Amino acid sequence: MSNRWYFMAGLLAVLLVSGCTATTGGTARPAPSAAAGSLTGSTIRQVMLDGAALSKLLNQPFKTVPPFPPHFGDGDKLVDRYRSPAPAECLGVVFMLQKSTYQSATGKSDVRNFATEGWAHDGTSVRVDLVVEGVVSLPTAQDAAALFARFSAQWKECDGKTLTVPSDIFPENPIADVRVADSVVAATVSRGAGANSILLSAPEARAIGVRGNCLVEVDVTFFGNSYPSDEGSGDVNTSAVDIAHAMMDKVSALS
């Protein structure tokens, strides 16, 4: 249990030093029966799944993360966690809602609003440690589709590469298994602890989906050590994708 306590403490520390203000495959899915409309303003906060919905999806309990309450802001409030990642174009695969990721080559960003929220495991013998959800709204569905296409191409280029960041907690972040299907791009990341760290590497599932004028982002962090008795159905290959699709369905319902 001590290893798991250190594991979660290290992940929370990453969020703290990152300057965060708040917190493959996949089953074939039919296209929505009608195109989603546009979500504006704080309505996008309703897209995120709560603890009960996550518990139903992953078959384990979750609780809010008190140091990182739900956060909503304008696009100009986005920040970058690290100033010198390498390769820089892979920053958005490992880390959610990065300012530079959402900027064009000219430094322009069409992000209107974003929202984010984190949920932590509520127990010691579970598979998933943390789930972080994010939603970004853009002016039009065409803008969102174009940005998703750009992200998909970037993620494919990052497949097999390792993002290095100036951190003594998880400095090495190999990226693997990038795939695009059913309006979702997904990847698996192994957050590598420093050479002198007592922390285990943290397997993470990442996904970005597009629906209407919104992009949804998901990060699911798994414990580095697992046991047959662990509660839950979390799977590094499918969980982030499943959460992304559930959020995309909420975009359609709210539009």
Could you characterize what this model shows?
- Mean pLDDT is 85; it is low at 1-35.
- It is built from five helices and nine strands, in the order ααββαββαβββββα.
- It has a single domain (2-254), classed as Protein Transport Mog1p, Chain A (3-Layer(aba) Sandwich).
- Strands 1, 2, 3, 4, 5, 6, 7, 8 and 9 form a nine-stranded antiparallel sheet that branches.
- It is α+β, with helices and mostly antiparallel strands and 255 residues long.
- The chain is 25% helix and 26% strand.
Main sheet? 9 strands, antiparallel
- Supply the number of structural domains: 1
Characterize the overall form: globular
The helix content, as a percent range, equals: 10-25%
pLDDT average, as an integer?
85
The assigned structural class equals alpha+beta
CATH fold description? Protein Transport Mog1p, Chain A
Series of secondary-structure elements, N-terminal to C-terminal: HHEEHEEHEEEEEH
Question: How many strand segments?
Answer: 9
CATH class: Alpha Beta
Name the poorly predicted regions.
1-35
CATH superfamily: PknH-like extracellular domain
CATH architecture: 3-Layer(aba) Sandwich
Radius of gyration: 17 Å
Q: How much of the residues is beta strand, in percent?
A: 25-35%
Number of helices: 5
Q: Distance N terminus to C terminus?
A: 44 Å
